């Protein structure tokens, strides 16, 4: 699907022959289900981090069970600084983490609640990398677990391609497509876990023989138009907010 690390990687040859989209929605959904699973033995995981680099660490982790019950939801004191970019996304500052437990202590809880479980995450490769890096920073051995990635499954369902792979989509886009209400705690580990679980359940209930999510769109291009319109509306709202802020600033100066 995405990159040669994944078993159903779609390479440039398939893209050039036009075979990806022609497979049809039902076949893409069937293929996605081969590499995604959610059941009573699953746990949902999300993290917030100090950044995106190879030395970044997690600073917040949440794990929910299949029913949405909290198994672990805690902030973690890192050994590296929180980057400005990451701080602007999740709003977690260094002072918010001073009294938190460090990863070696929280890791014991992580190992306990994930033992024998399948981990479901949105962009699982990223969360797994961050946990591995945090373990390495504290000289801990990352325990092996089976991971499933909802992002890759959803992206295959949508079917858009880029450079021979299916194009990745944000969790907010997946939530919008499956009519999952916006989460007030978005960009917190707990909020994103809740959204991931809700999207995963809707994804598994999707019937490709009847319709695409939200509306009775049988043409995949109709979904693309909806996704593009969503992004345009989001950009428009952001511009309106900037204009309002600028006008207020000018008014204050002139006053």
UniProtKB/TrEMBL annotation:
Record flagged with keyword Nucleotide-binding: no
Keyword Membrane: yes
Highest rank taxon of the organism: Bacteria
Gene3D superfamilies noted in UniProt: Ribonuclease H-like superfamily/Ribonuclease H
One BP annotation, GO: DNA metabolic process
Annotated ranges, domain Exonuclease: 41-209
A Pfam family per the record: RNase_T
GO molecular function: 3'-5' exonuclease activity; nucleic acid binding
UniProt entry keywords in alphabetical sequence: Exonuclease, Hydrolase, Membrane, Nuclease, Transmembrane, Transmembrane helix
SUPFAM superfamilies, per database record: Ribonuclease H-like
Membrane spanning stretches: 238-254
Protein name (database record): Putative exonuclease
Source species of the chain: marine gamma proteobacterium HTCC2143
């Amino acid at each position: 699907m995405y990159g040669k690390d994944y078993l159903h990687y779609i390479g440039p040859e398939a893209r050039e022959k036009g075979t990806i989209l022609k497979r049809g929605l039902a076949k893409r959904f069937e293929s996605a289900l081969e590499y995604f699973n959610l059941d009573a033995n699953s746990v949902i995981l999300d993290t917030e981090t100090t950044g995106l680099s190879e030395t970044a660490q997690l600073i917040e982790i949440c794990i929910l069970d299949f029913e949405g019950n909290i198994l672990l939801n805690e902030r973690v004191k890192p050994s590296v600084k929180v980057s400005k970019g990451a701080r602007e996304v999740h709003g977690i500052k260094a002072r918010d983490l001073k009294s938190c437990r460090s990863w070696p202590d929280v890791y014991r809880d992580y190992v306990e609640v994930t033992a024998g479980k399948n981990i479901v995450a949105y962009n699982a490769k990223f969360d797994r990398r961050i946990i591995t890096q945090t373990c390495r920073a504290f000289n801990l051995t990352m325990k092996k677990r089976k991971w499933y990635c909802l992002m890759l499954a959803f992206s295959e369902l949508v079917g858009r391609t880029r450079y021979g792979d299916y194009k990745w989509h944000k969790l907010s886009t997946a939530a919008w497509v499956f009519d999952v209400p916006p989460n007030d705690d978005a960009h917190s580990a707990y909020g994103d876990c809740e959204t991931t679980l809700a999207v995963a359940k809707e994804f598994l209930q999707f019937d490709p023989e009847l319709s695409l999510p939200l509306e009775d769109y049988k043409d995949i291009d109709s979904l693309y138009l909806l996704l593009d319109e969503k992004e345009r509306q989001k950009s428009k709202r952001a511009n309106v907010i900037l204009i309002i802020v600028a006008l207020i600033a000018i008014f204050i100066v002139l006053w």
